[in-house]
Amino acid sequence: MKYYEVHFHIGGSDAILQDARDVLSALLGEAGFETFEETEEGLKGYVQQDVFDTAALQSQLALFPFDDVNISYEVKEAEDRDWNEQWEQEGFEPIIVRGQSLEVRGERADDSGERSVIIHDGRHLPAELSSHLPPLTSHPSQFSILNSQFSIEIDAHLAFGTGNHETTRMMVSQLLSLPLEGKRVLDCGCGTGILGITALKLGAREAVGYDIDEWSADNARHNAVINQVDDRFTSLLGDASVLETVEGTFDVVLANINRNILLNDLPAFRSKMAPGAILLLSGFYREDIPLLVQKANSLGMTLQQECSDGEWACIVLQ
Asked: How many angstroms separate the Cα of 126 from the Cα of each of 118, 122, 147, 201?
């Protein structure tokens, strides 16, 4: 999927530069931009080439509320690097994620909150560590009973979700603490499929994932195969509208996506939630929590738990 990289230059007082960045990123989200990176001069935004609309961008910029700030921008194609080649050369070091003690609907995954998972790429796992891991074919209930570690192998091909990012780690940590045995799980914007695969390893009976990126949808399917859960994992290509084709409801819904997409797609998530279902969200900053909770409340959901890692946040709704 091709992206444009748009450099926004914010001219004005240094004292309001950060506020200007925050307001600008919110406006750009309404114009289809997905991710942002702060620069010394202002902000760098990324938008898919097939959804980039100059008129929509100009309309949002016209709403910018600071009269004494000037904004200019430059558009160029985002670097199309051979991420697969880089992945094969570098991979990533094994990551250990531990669960948190969490009670939802009176159910607790384990009293100690010490259940953990090792996420690895299949190439960088030390022999002395791998020799102590239960095999991938072990039944997940063994792990909750013995409170021992288990492993997930991720072969990331142009997809987000190896456990390196704070939001992914928080989502996995919360999953380790949820009662998932026998549950049906929906993974929205699944990336590598790491969240759905984790849920299946923890005893979920079925996981359905979808992603707007074709590489990600294919990669999630691939990772389900190498983790031997492909018989219970379905990967779909599309955005939240693909849920109209998915039958039934889900006990747990997962979404690690940016704030604006979450706000837009929350009604679609809600429509697929069974009574008492859990919605686990990340991909946004701590200051975004009130806005997301307000939207969730309007849809009949309530906040159960929140956590953060640096400036990134994660919330559990029911």
From this structure: 12, 10, 21, 22
Q: Tell me the average pLDDT across 116-123.
A: 50
Q: Is the dihedral of CA 287, 176, 318, 35 positive or negative?
A: positive
CA distance 46 to 103: 38
List the single range of 30-34, 68-72, 141-145, 297-301 with lowest mean pLDDT: 141-145
Nearest to 250 by CA among 229, 275, 233: 275
Query: CB atoms < 10 A from the CB of 17, how many?
Result: 18
How would residue 140 be classed by pLDDT, with cut points 50, 70 and 90?
very low
Q: In whole angstroms, what is the distance from residue 252 CA to residue 180 CA? A: 8
Q: Could you report the per-residue pLDDT of 260-285, keeping only the tens digit for each?
A: 889 999 999 999 999 999 999 998 88
> What is the topology classification, in CATH, of domain 85-317?
Rossmann fold (3.40.50)
d(CA 120, CA 163): 9
Q: What is the CATH number of domain 3-77?
A: 3.30.70.100
Q: How many CB atoms lie within 10 A of CB 284?
A: 24
Is residue 260 within 8 A of residue 30, CB to CB? The reply is: yes
Q: How far apart are CA 63 and CA 23, in angstroms?
A: 10
Q: Domain residue spans in the chain? A: 3-77, 85-317
